[in-house]
Design a protein that fits this description.
By secondary structure, the protein is of the alpha+beta class. It folds into three domains: 54 residues; 94 residues, Orthogonal Bundle (DNA polymerase, domain 1), CATH 1.10.150.130; 201 residues, hpI Integrase, Chain A, CATH 1.10.443.10. Helix content is 45%, strand content 13%. The strands form three sheets. Strands 1, 2, 3 and 4 form a four-stranded antiparallel β-sheet that branches. Helix 2 packs antiparallel against helix 3. The longest helix has 20 residues. The relative contact order is 0.08.
């Protein structure tokens, strides 16, 4: 019966013999990654020296120890290898930081010391159940589950696991998401009226002054006019804004100039670097050119300094000028304070993005592909962004017309 082949990247038994008066040779068979078994030999002044030299050659042939996983490797080792080989070369700094936080805060404390052969579906299911018992949100648990799945996927690729145990787990269930809500006409007027007005109440007036100092009125108009994400708006530079306009042919066949803004990059906080302008954007379809309505064009024209450098942010940090990127998280906090003062505590800066798409969707003049392009999405996420639950009085007119005969 033929002798079974060695596993890939594995040596056979090492033998040492004397060659000459003061030399020893260490030999073994080694099956390379291409499946071919080859003979390796090294020499030394002693048996130990020859054997150690051969071990060094074998390790070099296998690759660095940290690049290889075994069933006895810890989950922590696989996670670090995943971060080093799969995440760091491919993901932006903010995404790497998010993965790192989920690993350090949740996954590694519970799973880090488990051997990969011990990471069974039942153990991982118990781990996910404990996260739910801790009261972590469905979205966060789903994000942690995704990280664990990717680490186990790497173990599968290394031949350590026959199948990914995370695939056997139930989907994460959380609270049913509420229907998307956009600003109504009355709410939009209330928001902009409060931002532009001056109250007789000293406390409210102080909040209005603070909002203007923090660029909230102009930033709110920009978000409502473009549907930009808050991180995208903070990343807009004056060179990204074309107030003169680009030439287009309108429905009447007339050539006219349309002011535009180029969106896509975002401002994100990266560990060790601070606020960074990330060119890749949030999604592959994020880079886009959005036409500016008249009120936004007028706002930007009034806001733009005569000598503004091309690379300077349009909405810098409050109280600062020049290359001072505004933190999107802080800007979002300013919006929440404003919405609380206006009597809309449910709203965040992202409601402006939903309002933008809701207005376009109600008009029904643009195709879904056009709306997706303007939103920076691969496909239109109507159920996520379009506000629901408003009164549509025209429905009665349509039904009445149908039964009129």
């Amino acid at each position: 019966m033929a002798r079974p082949p060695l596993p890939l990247n594995t040596p056979g038994k090492i033998g040492v013999r004397k060659v000459g008066d003061k030399r020893f040779a260490a030999r073994c068979r080694y099956r390379d990654a291409d499946g071919v078994t080859r003979r390796l030999e090294t020499r030394g002044r002693s048996e130990t020296a020859a054997r150690n030299e051969l071990q060094t050659v074998i390790k070099a042939r296998q690759g660095h120890g940290s690049d290889k996983l075994y069933p006895s490797s810890r989950f922590r080792d696989a996670a670090e290898l995943w971060m080093a080989t799969k995440v760091t070369p491919r993901r932006s700094g903010s995404t790497r930081d998010a993965y790192r936080r989920r690993l350090d805060a949740v996954a590694l404390p519970a799973l880090g010391e488990l051997r990969l052969r011990e990471c069974t579906a039942s153990r991982l299911d118990a781990f996910m159940a404990r996260l739910e018992q801790r009261g972590l949100s469905g979205n966060y648990r789903s994000a942690v589950r995704g990280v664990v799945r990717e680490v186990c996927k790497l173990a599968v690729m290394h031949g350590v696991m026959a199948a990914n145990p995370v695939d056997a787990l139930d989907d994460v269930e959380g609270k049913r998401a509420a229907a998307p809500r956009a600003l109504t006409v009355r709410e939009r007027r209330a928001l902009l009226g409060w931002l532009d007005g001056t109250s007789d109440d000293d406390e409210v007036a102080a909040k209005q002054v603070a909002a203007r100092r923090r660029h909230v009125p102009d930033l709110a108009r920009f978000l409502l006019a473009t549907g930009a994400r808050i991180g995208e708006a903070c990343a807009v530079r004056w060179c990204d804004v074309d107030l003169e306009g680009v030439p287009v042919v309108d429905e009447a066949g007339q050539l006219r100039a349309v002011p535009v803004v180029h969106l896509g990059p975002v401002i994100a906080r990266v560990n060790g670097q601070g606020l960074v302008r990330v060119e890749e954007g949030k999604t592959a379809a994020a880079k886009r050119t959005v036409p500016l309505p008249g009120f936004a064009t007028a706002m930007l024209a009034a806001r733009k300094p005569d000598d503004a450098p091309a690379g300077e942010p349009v909405f810098p940090t409050a109280g600062r000028a020049g290359m001072s990127w505004q933190d999107p998280s802080r800007a979002g906090k300013y919006f929440r304070e404003v919405f609380d003062a206006v009597g809309m505590p449910w709203a965040t800066s992202h409601v402006c993005r939903k309002t933008y798409l809701t207005i376009l969707d109600d008009e029904q003049a643009l195709s879904d592909r056009m709306k997706a392009d303007l939103m920076g999405h691969a496909t239109l996420l109507r159920d996520t962004y379009v506000g629901r639950g408003e009164l549509h009085p025209q429905a009665a007119t349509y039904i009445d017309a149908a039964y009129r005969d």
